[in-house]
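Protein Record: Sequence and Backbone Structure Tokens
======================================================

Structure line: whole-number tokens from a learned vocabulary of local backbone shapes, matched to residues.

Purpose: to set a sequence beside its fold so the mapping can be learned.

___
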Amino acid sequence: MHTATAKQSSDELSAAKSGNFRIGEDLQIHRLGYGAMRITGKGIWGEPQNRDEAIQVLRRAVALGINFIDTADSYGPSVSEDIIAEALHPYPAGLVIATKAGFDRTGPDKWVTNGRPEHLRAACEGSLTRLRLERIDLFQLHRIDDKVPADVQLGTLKDLQAEGKIKHIGLSEVSIEQIKHARTIVPIVTVQNRYSVLDRAAEDVLDYCQRENIGFIPWFPLAAGQVSTAGSELARIASQLKVTPSQLALAWLLWRSPVILPIPGTSRVAHLEENIAAAALKFDESTMREIDKLGSKS
């Protein structure tokens, strides 16, 4: 059993060790990406406490092999996309930036679904401008708005794709039935649902994505920090293996399915490096199955 410690040298740190996944037929990414929600202020609102460190986190992420960054127009709003462009533009070859649309923000921690065509189109145009892109590689519908026919929302994304403004389309927080319906309108290459070692409510969606070779992007992959709860069973196993609970949770996600694309987010360089160290961790099957029994499917 491999028990690499959390303190790996910089030479050993590489997101490439997480393996590869192909989004669509043309975008190859390393399976461990970066979620850029946390490089904003409290309540995912306004500027981050330390903008300079947020920029350093992004640059360090790319230097350590991360080539998939997930953001959204609603993070800030606009703040995350602005910082990504400031930190990384002109973008290195092979870097895939995924963004999302489908929310209005009315204040800290306040999210209001908006799937009206004019909103989705304006959001796409805004993201293109802020990210300084001519085309968005992966544009995700942040939520399917139940106030607007799903066909209308997906049809808008199909139009944006036909216009060359977006390359691939993904969904977020959807059921299998919603994915199947969406695929009758447009090709769907990724699904982003909440999922972690402690939260398996989306297990059926993950299994469907694996069968269909659709990328599954788990948001809150570390259960908003709950995986590090002192005294937990996960923490006990992690201590035995000489890794952190967060690293073990990420290693489990990479083991769980070849279509899982974890995107742990952080606003600190040290935490980023800890997460990336998980890409190289490999444990025996019995250890992974022991961890597999810890989750809740309710």
In short: The domain at 15-292 is CATH 3.20.20.100 (TIM Barrel). The chain has a mean pLDDT of 94.
